[in-house]
Amino acid sequence: MGHLNLPPSKRNPRQWKLLDIVSAFFFALVLLFFLLVFTPLGDSLAASGRQALLLSTSDPKQRHRLVELLELGHHHQPIEACPADSVDHMPCEDPRRNSQLSREMNFYRERHCPLPDETPLCLIPPPLGYKIPVQWPESFHKIWHSNMPHNKIADRKGHQGWMKEEGPYFIFPGGGTMFPDGAASYIEKLGQYIPVTGGTLRTALDMGCGVASFGGSMLKEGILTLSFAPRDSHKAQIQFVLERGIPAFVLMLGTRRLPFPAFAFDLIHCSRCLIPFTAYNATYFVEVDRLLRPGGYLVISGPPVQWPKQDKEWTDLQAVARALCYELIAVDGNTAIWKKPDGDSCLPNQNEFGLELCDGSNDPSNAWYFKLKKCVTKTSSVNGEYAIGTIPKWPDRLTTAPSRALVMKNGIDLFEADTRRWARRVAYYKHTLNVKLGTPAIRNVMDMNAFFGGFAAALKSDPVWVMNVVPARKPLTLDVIYDRGLIGVYHDWCEPFSTYPRTYDLIHVAGIESLIKLPGSSKSRCNLVDLMVEIDRMLRPEGTVVIRDSPEVIEKVARIAHAVRWSATINDKEPESHGRENILVATKTFWQLTSSSS
């Protein structure tokens, strides 16, 4: 049968309708293409799309896409501000997250970090009414109340001289629970039994420090004290300490080694820190022993030392100290002072705690997410001379190559070259790049990739303290830093750092890209965007960032710097330096939440 050939006017109306729709859709696409490409509407839509992406990073795919856009510089808007209730946020010490974890040995109060994909990509805002901090040394005595308006400690501990509110300030009279008359008189009393003056002691650890009036007062004696406490019911105590310009770190002695090398501290101090030293077969005392330098001093004030209803605990504490051959120097009221033996512990011996020496497989300086050991570290397991009395006194020890530097090939030569290199570089930072080192504007400093601590050593005459961070996947040189009389911690920069927001005036990093790479590989473990957002979280408004790396990396860093609201310049390296390096110097702008964003 042949096909019936109808004239156009007789064709099926449905056929016309389909053709019209297809044609209209095609022409609409063409029109939209021209609008997007050749008119301002395209830019506007693209910007709003990116802004929507900035706000919705809960989806890992969207978050990865945002990171990619930021690294490429394909955006016009800065990263969004976090909500107003996040002004004091510490991602790895988040009570809402950690409260669901086990209470055994305070596991829930240790570091527990979210995965990057679980972390909103946003910038932590300052609190309402935030002011540029009071400068050192005035900050030792007073800080702005509006910068951390948390009155809990002042209300509960004001009668003990911790701190109190006075006008627009919190002021710090210098007291503590065990020294309500002031830390100065307490330290003077300690000086009757231990060499507080004269440079014999330099590095100290203050456990459960409160607002660190002890650590701050020890600075006057030339003793550099790193104070720590967990994030606990005394809201923001470490935040107060850092705002005062005193070295401090958020930390909990729980199930893991503290992130310090073996035999780091000349003095370890606990003033009512309430650490159960003899619990769990004296595991916590054993950890203190790992950290205390041979010939160093342990001071415990408060419970259980001659404390009512704690006779057994006090007897046990003396017993474990005897088992490790610590010499009881004095018991003065509720303060006990021991001296650690210079050489190997007198173990093995018969003791009620079952303490034994660690075997040869134990590296006592391995301390990043490392479970506490129930064995005692042998002094002879660490090569070198590091006992009190065998190392130079301060300040000579700063520039004397420690024997522990020999763990690296040509370690002594590397140490001396590193010291000279950073003296040149710091002079260039100050005199050519106009970094405000040496002025009252900079007190709290961090070196994110410290190696031997050469950068910090070059600042010895400046009114600063430096947190030297040794990346946990790099050579573990933190023991050399402590032997020099400096302080620091191990850390992995693919995780947030254990500090409050807005705690450093200057953050320095040499080789920033190496912090995110697998050792010996070009593959990244994390990304520069998250790392720079974390640097921004730690940095005070109007604070300074100094980053040095290859020109290609610095170019990428500069693009991200714009997104985190820094004002940045790229500079040439020092004329005397070798290799291909540029130096980015940036200032964090002082921005605040608007009423619409809060």
TrEMBL record:
GO terms for molecular function: S-adenosylmethionine-dependent methyltransferase activity. SUPFAM superfamilies: S-adenosyl-L-methionine-dependent methyltransferases. It is a single-pass membrane protein; Single-pass type II membrane protein. Its main location: membrane. It comes from the Eukaryota. The chain crosses the membrane at residues 21-41. The keyword Hydrolase does not apply. InterPro entries: Put_SAM_MeTrfase, SAM-dependent_MTases_sf. One of its GO terms (biological process) is methylation. Pfam families: Methyltransf_29. The keyword Methyltransferase applies. Keywords: Glycoprotein, Membrane, Methyltransferase, Signal-anchor, Transferase, Transmembrane, Transmembrane helix. Its EC number is 2.1.1.-. GO terms for cellular component: endosome; membrane; trans-Golgi network. It is an enzyme of class 2 (transferase). Gene3D superfamilies: Vaccinia Virus protein VP39 (3.40.50.150). It is found in: Endomembrane system; Membrane. PANTHER family: PECTIN METHYLTRANSFERASE QUA3-RELATED, SAM-DEPENDENT METHYLTRANSFERASE. Belongs to the methyltransferase superfamily. This is Methyltransferase. It comes from Gossypium harknessii.
